[in-house]
Amino acid sequence: MAGNSIPNPPRLSGEYEKDASPLSNFMADLYKALVLSNEFIKTAGQTETGDFDPTSLPDPGKTNLAQAQDTANKAYNLAAIANTQANVIDYFGELTLSEAEVTKIFAFEEAKQPPDANYSLTFSAKSFTGTPDVGAFIVVQVITAQEQFAIQTSTAPGTGATVTFSWHLRRDTTQDQGT
User: Fold this and answer.
1) Rounded to whole angstroms, how far apart are CA atoms 105 and 149?
2) Exposed e or buried b for every residue in 134-149, given b needs 16+ CB within 10 A?
């Protein structure tokens, strides 16, 4: 391994007995080059959340316009990805209507409550018992709130019958922002 370069990977034959030693040596050399040499991964410059030090920023006097623009583009892209990931919520579950129930309320666990009532739900009948009325499979109204949602079906399942729905909640605030 020469200086601050990444070692070339070994040629492998596909036979474990022959390949194990060269592959192991390559991984050790790669670790030395990337981590121990402190040339590629600058461990001293890495910080934990909240430990930001403005003096660690690049010196503007030694940075050209292209480097500054590249850094700004990367920061913007990372922020956009983080925003999208933070604003999309996928949550799944099931609820069952029994006998005379036409309406069912599902309360979210406190830790899984969406931040507001701006989310959409899809429902699919998963299973049933007995001989439910056909209207019990048709969701006619959905009411959303931050802490719960309610569904209403066209008719109740009927005596001795149940209908179980799978539901999927999706919240995407990027749609609210027009992006």
Assistant:
1) 6
2) eebbebeeeebeeeeb
Question: For the chain, how big is the Rg over CA atoms in Å?
Answer: 28
**What CATH number should be reported for the domain holding residue 156?**
2.60.40
Share of the chain above pLDDT 90, in %: 32
* Domain around 29: 1-47
Distance CA 139, CA 123 (A): 8
pLDDT over 90 (residue 63):
no
pTM of the full predicted structure? 0.49
User: Does the structure show a pLDDT above 60 at 117?
Assistant: yes
Does residue 115 lie in a domain region? yes
For residues 118 and 166, membership in a common domain is answered with yes
In a domain, 14, yes or no: yes
Give the amino acid at 24. Answer: S
Number of independent structural domains in the chain:
2
Alpha-carbon distance values, 138 to 115, 119, 133, 179 (Å): 28, 20, 10, 33
**pLDDT tens per residue, range 9-46:** 888 888 878 888 888 888 888 777 776 665 555 555 55
